[in-house]
Design brief:
disordered C terminus, mainly alpha, disordered N terminus
């Protein structure tokens, strides 16, 4: 625990009077807990990389790393005002990490929108999101430093951008813009979740629980609470400083709870790794009796000759086995023709085969309706998958 008395609310609030002691305690506890939580979150995601690797996980790890750097920089250096150069360096690092983390929250919101609403858009946009999330903060901070020659950073009270300069309002504008965009995306995603078949069929109580759970997960994930600090403009709006300090200094801890502790995918990955380690330890300790589940978890492979015999018995037609007396080339041609006819009869709808007597223009709308129904089922399945991950 640190001994300096600077609240997290100074990052966004324009009210810069002496902060209450309770706010300082909340800041110290929240930042310390968030640092430990984000460290565990990053380690868990790296350990389970093979099981949970996707675009959302990559964005999530980058955001957690930037937030961790921001928390550490704030706790360790926001009060180092005795050395001007060090103080300005701390302020620049803090501004970059917070700005980049805000852009990564926006990138996660865009990725979430693509996966839930635009599920048929399968092209990956990860590299573009990474370029924007790292590139724009770099350009913005470099422009701010160049425009002020570093004099807009640090004062006698704290190592942060000066409130009486455009740097503070520039950072506030970025926070407001990102939070508003994330809020719009959050509302759109919540509407999509509530209008899916899997939720519409549930009772009103289940719908409310689903909405509350989604809000509890997505609010710290997308950083919507950052906009609260803007409303703390005087001593009569101190309640916003308390809300902002609670939501943002504890953001790392809430991300740990929602994205690690209560994340089904992470829990399944941890259980799988634990089962594999247990099975490996059992074999190394000399126990020969291993259950079939342990064999499956350790991905034990059969000998190659066993696999060939299994494929020979299961996948090859009976006439092509060792009992066959026809030459191999004749058998292959025969079974190829049979396979072609089978695939044709299987893939072509029954009403569109040679036995069909209906005109083609009457059959086509029906089959088009079947295709649309199948597409809608795929849409619902993908949306329900992301509901179960919340």
């Amino acid at each position: 625990m640190c001994d300096h008395l600077t609240t997290f609310a100074v990052l966004i609030s324009s009210y810069q009077k002496e902060e209450p002691y309770e706010l300082n305690v909340l800041t110290q506890v929240g930042c310390s807990l968030s640092i430990a939580s984000l460290t565990v979150t990053i380690i868990v995601n790296i350990v389970l990389w093979g099981d949970i690797k996707d675009s959302a996980t990559i964005l999530h790890i980058n955001k957690c790393s930037l937030l961790l750097m921001a928390y550490v920089t704030f706790v360790a250096g926001v009060d180092k005002t005795s050395n001007t150069i060090v103080c300005r360096l701390v302020a620049v690092i803090l501004q970059f990490t917070l700005t980049a983390s805000m852009f990564f929250m926006l990138a996660e919101a865009i990725e979430l929108y693509k996966n839930v609403v635009l599920i048929f858009y399968t092209r990956s946009i990860l590299k573009y999101l990474l370029i924007v999330a790292y590139g724009l903060p770099t350009v913005i901070v470099a422009a701010f430093v160049g425009a002020t020659q570093g004099h807009g950073y640090g004062d006698e009270r704290r190592c942060w951008v000066k409130v009486d300069t455009f740097l503070f309002w520039g950072f506030s504008g970025i926070v407001i813009g990102v939070c508003l965009a994330n809020f719009v995306i959050l509302v759109r995603v919540m509407h999509k979740i509530q209008t899916t078949k899997i939720v519409r069929r549930k009772s009103c109580k289940v719908k409310i629980i689903t909405a509350i759970r989604a809000l509890a997960v997505l609010t710290p994930l997308l950083g919507v609470g950052w906009i609260i600090g803007v409303f703390a403009v005087n001593e009569y709006t101190m309640i916003f400083q308390y809300l902002f300090t609670i939501m943002c200094s504890f953001q790392g801890f809430m991300i740990f709870l929602t994205q690690t502790v209560f994340n089904k995918k992470v829990r399944q990955g941890l259980k799988k790794r634990f089962a594999r380690a247990t099975a490996m330890c059992t074999r190394l300790c000399g126990y020969d009796q291993i259950t079939q589940q342990d064999i499956g978890l350790t991905r034990r492979r059969k000998p190659r000759h066993d696999l060939l015999m299994l494929a020979h018995k299961v996948y090859l037609p009976q006439q092509m086995t060792a009992e066959s007396t026809l030459p191999l080339d004749q058998e292959f041609s025969q079974h190829l023709s049979v396979a072609d006819m089978t695939s044709v009869s299987r893939d072509v709808p029954q009403k569109m085969t040679a036995e069909s007597t209906s005109p083609l223009d009457q059959e086509f709308p029906q089959h088009l309706s079947d295709i649309n129904s199948a597409s809608q089922d795929i849409y619902e399945q993908n949306t329900s998958y992301f509901i179960t991950r919340l």
